[in-house]
Amino acid sequence: MTDNGNPLLQDWQTPYQLPPFQQIQCEHFAPAFAVLFEQHLAEIDALAENQATPTFANTVAAFDAAGATIDRVRLTFENLCASESPAALQAVEREMAPLLAAHDSKVAMHAGFFARLDAVHQQAAVLDLSEEQQRLLQRMHTDFVRTGAKLQGFDRERFAAIASRLADLQTQFAQNILADESSYQLPLTSEVDLAGLPDFLRQSARSAAKERGLEGYVITLSRSLVQPFLTWSTRRDLRETAWCAWTSRGENPARDNRPIAREILMLRQEQAHLLGYENFADYALADRMAGSASAVHALLSQVWEPAKASVEQERQALAAQAAALGEPADIEPWDWYYLAEKVRVARYELDDAQVKPYFSLDAMLAAMFDCAERLFKLQFVEQTSVSLYHPDVRLWEVRRGAEQVGIFLGDNYARPNKQGGAWMHVYRKQRRHGGKVTPIVVNNNNFARTDDGPTLLSFDDVRTLFHEFGHGLHGLLSDVNYGRLSGTNVPQDYVELPSQLMENWATVPEVLAKHARHVSTGEPIPAELIERIRASQTFNQGFQTVAYTSSALIDMALHLRNDLDGIDIARFEVAERERLGVPREVGMRHRLPHFGHIFSGGYYAAGYYVYMWAEVLEADAFDAFEEAGNAFDPALADKLHRYVYSAGDSREQGSAFRAFRGRDPRAEPMLRKRGLLRTE
Ligand SMILES: [Zn+2]
């Protein structure tokens, strides 16, 4: 193999074997992948053609180790496409997407290799394997079966054709939403139209106008513009206009998502049938911690009635607020955000100008590292001499005493070439088999950089910082033998446990008293301000819970349905809302024609519930620390480390949770946290 000077194909003689960012150019990726695809397939062909009897070592462990070279380039590519992606790299990303998918499909449908894997699997019971090896064998076999490896003849071809058609339809669905969002504009032409809007929103509306070559201000249908507009605009008529446009995304006759969604649903059902499941929900749930649709319903139904009761109380408070403002008492969906904000400000007297000076980014980084040291004995030591892909990015060596555990990168600022939102990813995942490999983890946020002085965060930003750090620790503390079982590679309804759990430490009074210090005076945050921040966390939770849970219930109902012929998802949604008794003034978090979570890809299909599932685990797990009366209880921290943060997918999640908590999870702590636990 010749590398033609392509740095992606060479040995990385860099600090920590990081990618050689300074040498990598966009045009290096396509030729590198061409070589690496072949190399990876050759590795698997060799495993398949092995004449020796299939064993765990020559088949299962060997497959897990194959592909380390392609992984390192693929992870670099994914990270750069998300964090630092100029137009040229975006073009490469579009060009590579179908090629990467085709490669994955060749691996997943490799008949020769699967025959050997299946042979090992059939002997699983009599093989002398460790618990982790058994787990790897089961997970790997399941992965192959679920992507159609067992199918023969026509079924096999049909399954592959469906997968490819689904990829097209899902992309189309997402692009239609994007087109609806970017083509819409609500111009605000005079001071009267801007009534109530805070400065930051005026600035964003002005930038949105400029981007479109317009004078003045416009509101588009991007969530970051329309949601604040609905929160602050005092113009009820304009709120109604914006609301109606926002909630009818995906129904534009020129690019109607309803027939696309119908075809997606029918194809998913056919896929499920081919694999022997009654419907798509059964297929999706079989590979999650919940295990069945009835387990999901059991959880959601515990939340549903108390949440509706809370909405009624919240509605009354909003109606009183409307009366005080001289607004009509019959609250419409476009009034809820606006009135709720007025009630929130009056009730908790929290405004950003008062709160933010206590939460500088540097102080909060120190706070989260301090928590990781007290819980998991980790030290984060910053190294400033390594050049990365952008000067914003910081690097910490993560140590436990003399041992180097991994590398942590923090990329915290918004940039034009960076995706929105916050996420964690890896450049290298932890494993031990075949030589110890330590993880390289990155956390991304999109905080606004301030030119003068330190970056100040809202309390929501602080939670986000801790959330991503929780995913980061899940990657860093991973301590397993095999890559397939490493770090965050766990079922969707479990992966948010380590992250949501970490958010709790951001509200621990002793953490805030130590680290949340006023940026100019150094004074610790007043205890009563901490109390108000903590109290405000349950505000409006009836509304939030109903909006979320109605979407989760409708997602399940849709994917459990067997009769999909001619289904109109918009009508289905109306009928389901009626049946569930969703209060009319609460809009759904996502209406079906633009429910990208479930139609722009398959990951959250029959899976929008996963956030709440993980929240049950998280709230119950943190409750153990509250019961102990110590947020850093050493014995609990030790179990949390062993059974949750370091375990990856090396044991079944229910059993891992029981090992930590001593029993099955209970929903009460989650209900209490949301303010939904009523004593009759
Ligand atoms: Zn997360």
From TrEMBL:
Keywords, alphabetical: Carboxypeptidase, Hydrolase, Metal-binding, Metalloprotease, Protease, Zinc
Name the UniProt record assigns to this protein: Dipeptidyl carboxypeptidase Dcp
InterPro entries to which the protein is assigned, alphabetical: M3A_DCP, MetalloPept_cat_dom_sf, Neurolysin/TOP_dom2, Pept_M3A_M3B, Pept_M3A_M3B_dom
Gene3D superfamilies noted in UniProt: 1.10.1370.40, Collagenase (Catalytic Domain), Neurolysin, domain 3
Named cofactor requirement(s): Zn(2+)
Pfam families membership: Peptidase_M3
Family indicated by similarity: Belongs to the peptidase M3 family.
Phylogenetic classification of the source organism: Bacteria, Pseudomonadati, Pseudomonadota, Betaproteobacteria, Burkholderiales
Biological processes annotated in GO: proteolysis
Cofactor info, note text: Binds 1 zinc ion.
Domain annotation Peptidase M3A/M3B catalytic: ranges: 230-675
Organism of provenance: Caballeronia sordidicola (Burkholderia sordidicola)
Single GO term (MF): metal ion binding
GO cellular component, one term: cytosol
